Amino acid sequence: MTMLEARGIQKAFNNGKKDIPVLKGIDLKIEKGSFIVITGPSGAGKSTLLHILGGLDAPSAGEVRFTGQSLYALNDALLSRMRNQSIGFIFQFYHLLGEFNVLENVLMPALIKSSGRAQRKQSREKACALLLKVGLGERLDHYPSQLSGGERQRVAIVRALINSPQILFCDEPTGNLDSATGSEIFDLIRKINLDDKMTVVVVTHNTELVKGAGRVYHLKDGVLVN
């Protein structure tokens, strides 16, 4: 079953004088439960492509369909709701809020989605269970500044999973970590894919981490090669 399909994706940025093409016609089908890695050199447009696939940045041309729905045909409110409820994101630099503790950071997306006391209670219980599962059961009241890089990324992973998304996008999830910690984080993402049948798309320039991926693509000169 096709979960997400990109057709003819193009993206160009204007430097003030002319348009600079980055993506030059990307076609991609992502099947439910698959684990896809997109590699390529820095500056190739990997993150740009991931943001377009995840509804964060509209393409200059082309279409992205998620579970049959054209993402960029949605109004801002509906697109924001879809990102909150159906799409999870993990970024290189964690994007945790320093003034909130681990549990509070994880619960942010759930608080946006939930409206009732019962739902908030369920979200809190789920957050605690997920944090325990990734080895952070003793860190609930710690703040990001009190965590290692690997621990921060684990918090970011749990935050991405709190609303049970259908697909998980990972933008250089190990890029800010040492090799050993990076391997642990990549293994954790792979385990989530296998255990929970979670559809996962990872972009990375680290080719050492692609072993075990269901399918690997290479992005170079604006073109995606299988």
Explain what you see:
The chain is an alpha/beta fold and 226 residues long. It has one domain (2-225): 3-Layer(aba) Sandwich (Rossmann fold). The protein has helices at residues 46-53, 76-86, 102-113, 117-133, 149-161, 179-196, and strands at residues 2-14, 19-31, 35-39, 61-66, 69-70, 87-91, 167-171, 199-204, 215-220, 223-225. A 6-stranded mixed β-sheet has the order 6-7-8-3-9-10, sandwiched between helices. It has a 4-stranded antiparallel β-sheet with strand order 2-1-4-5, covered by helices on one side. The longest helix has 18 residues, at 179-196.
Number of domains: 1
Q: What is the makeup of the main sheet?
A: 6 strands, mixed
Give the helix/strand class.
alpha/beta
Order of helices and strands: EEEHEEHEHHHEHEEE
Proportion of helical residues: 25-40%
CATH superfamily membership: P-loop containing nucleotide triphosphate hydrolases
Q: What is the CATH topology?
A: Rossmann fold
CATH class: Alpha Beta
The CATH architecture can be named as 3-Layer(aba) Sandwich
Percentage of residues in strands: 25-35%
Question: What is the spatial order of strands in the main beta sheet?
Answer: 6-7-8-3-9-10
Low-confidence stretches: none
Mean pLDDT: 92
> What sort of overall outline do the alpha carbons produce when their principal axes are compared?
globular
- Count of alpha/pi helices: 6
How many runs of DSSP E, i.e. beta strands? 10
Question: Distance N terminus to C terminus?
Answer: 19 Å
Using only C-alpha atoms, the radius of gyration works out to: 18 Å
